[in-house]
Amino acid sequence: MNGYFITGTDTDVGKTLATAALLRALLDAGRRAVALKPVQTGCPERDGRLVAEDPTVYSRFTEEYFPGGYPEACCRKFVPACSPHLAAEMAGETLDPDELAAGLEALGHGYDTVLVEGAGGCAVPLGNGRTMLDLMQRLDLPVIVVADNRLGVVNHALMTVETLRGHGLDVAGVVMTNATPPTEGDAWLRRDNVKTIAEMSGAPILADIPHLPGAPVAEVTAHAARALDRLPQPRPVDGGLDFDRDHIWHPYTSALEPLPVNKVRSARGTRIVLDDGRELIDGMASWWCAIHGYAHPELTRAARAQLGRMPHVMFGGLTHDPAIGLCRDLLDMAPDGLEHVFLADSGSVSVEAAIKMALQYMQARGQTERTRLFTVRGGYHGDTCGAMSVCDPDNGMHHLFSGLLPKQIFAPVPDCPFHAPFDPECFRETERIFRERSGEIAAIIVEPIVQGAGGMRFYHPEYLRRLRRLADEHDVLLILDEIATGFGRTGKLFACEWGGVTPDILCVGKALTGGTMTLAAVLATGDVARTISADGGVFMHGPTFMGNPLACAVARASLGILRSTDWRAQVHAVEGWLKESFGPCRELPGVADVRVLGAIGVVEMENPVNVPGLQRFFVDHGVWLRPFGRLIYAMPPYIINRPETARLGAAVRDAITARAHL
Ligand code: PMP
């Protein structure tokens, strides 16, 4: 839908008059325009129908253009003259921004410019914690602010513009009205109001409509028409893609022949909106981190509040409430025994820090020959050097950086599926390695239960329990990388809970901030921290953005959402829906395996898939999935619902049936 959202700085500021006049000016300029209302309250009942007042004003201004009468302009109408949330509540109904947006789109179908006139100001409640801002964000139209030139208007106009921008909305400009007649002595004040609003908001004054008793159509329209030339042009669609292709490196791509990318305009809840307006159901949670969905209002609120206070301050010699609060919450949630937190700026960096902790731990104990890490094949721990050295040696980047990477010790892939009985045979090689080489080993590092980017395998909790036992027997540390699995993804808060195992060092990241920004943490036991710090020892790591207050504040809010919602039930439900919708893929040709654990659904193909081909197919079918290797998988936000999950599954089935993976 193309057009503008028109909001007021308050009720009774002349918004309807300004809307009607703008509509008339647009029609006079040859546009197929219409003005609509999402909600109208104060509608008297006549002949069994509710009569909305504002459209009668639109009608008065546009009679010549709508000779058969003004079209239906309101999505919802209510009798009481009060706030929409209250009117809806009194009628026993609810107002949902998504439904209102869909209603407006239906009413606006066939018009090239739609003016959506809100009710009152931008923070007017719709009920259930939603406001008119939610509807504005959903429609994502440039916003015109109507402000009545009176005492207090500067304050109201500046607050409105600031709030709109803070919610990611484009402010097209301000239309000033003069609802009351000017008094003899206040012309200077009104002039200054206009000047001050323009200067301080940086938003253009689109029109200044004087006080016109009786609101004569031609005169008011003439003033409003001045706005047309000052309105911003519609955003270019797909602008910048050429530059992107020629100059910007995307993950794991060639600079010369990159895979195609889709430009995103916004993301909200479970939906990603592309620049051309297409909406995709998100099955990736942005590489598994946006667990609460995109633009969660509590995360946005936390970010905004912290941004206003202090986006960043160095962590050397300084500390702050966001870090203290977050670390306290993390230790409360984490498995028992973890007592110290090191904040890092990404998952990979947290793995580096964990590895360094293990090495410093052994050095502090005088076991300087223990310099290697033990891990299993099929793992993934990040793209920095230490992390790469423990990634799968065949799938990973070992061959590219073989001169640089430390040589670690690898056992075979844990060949003991999560859902099958445990076969002790799969652990023999691990035991043998420890019998022969434990003197070289500082720590075991693994992803507990789910090997993610290394192959999306789910292995048996008994394997993890045995690793813990082996670590204890041989006096080495157990590092668990829960960067992908932490915060509920597998159905437990931490995947190590499946085995009842507590690590010595735990890495978390990804979902820590609910996918809002980058942050990771390394949690260590008292023993690890005390040993490293004995005799004046210090832990040698300290990135510039360590403990970034903005990220910490958002992470704290994200953990708060986890605590206050029944994420276990959500993840359990998603697990059921994934089984339901991905399960039938088993019958399709070329499919090697289908497996589901928690909010992770995996279709493993027999051969590597055609990533660009599949991606195009998925986008054309309205879903966002990003396969890799032989795997087509989904790790959606926990808030995804059954029909959405069904659409992910249907898209995967259709893609395989259409052979889009070949
Ligand atoms: N460990 C695991 C288990 C991961 O899945 C990832 C990211 N996919 C990382 C580490 C690296 O995290 P980041 O991309 O934030 O550096």
For this structure, the quaternary state is single chain
The level of helicity is 25-40%
Strand content: 15-25%
Radius of gyration: 30 Å
Family: Belongs to the dethiobiotin synthetase family.
Protein name: Multifunctional fusion protein
Active site: 37
Modified residues (N6-(pyridoxal phosphate)lysine): 510
How are the secondary structure elements laid out?
Blueprint: E1 3-8, H1 15-28, E2 33-40, E3 45-46, E4 49-50, H2 54-62, E5 74-77, H3 84-90, H4 97-107, E6 113-121, E7 125-127, E8 130-131, H5 132-139, E9 143-148, H6 153-166, E10 171-177, H7 187-201, E11 205-208, H8 217-230, H9 241-247, E12 264-268, E13 271-274, E14 279-282, H10 285-288, H11 297-309, H12 321-333, E15 338-344, H13 347-364, E16 372-376, H14 385-389, E17 409-411, H15 428-437, E18 441-446, E19 450-451, E20 457-458, H16 461-473, E21 477-481, E22 505-508, E23 520-525, H17 526-533, H18 549-564, H19 567-582, E24 591-597, E25 600-605, H20 611-620, E26 623-624, E27 631-634, H21 642-657
Parallel strand pairs: 1-6, 1-9, 2-5, 2-6, 9-10, 10-11, 14-26, 16-17, 16-18, 18-21, 21-22
Antiparallel strand pairs: 3-4, 7-8, 12-13, 13-14, 15-23, 19-20, 22-23, 24-25, 25-27
This protein binds 4'-deoxy-4'-aminopyridoxal-5'-phosphate.
4'-deoxy-4'-aminopyridoxal-5'-phosphate is lined by residues 346-348, 351, 380-382, 447, 452-453, 481, 483-484, 509.
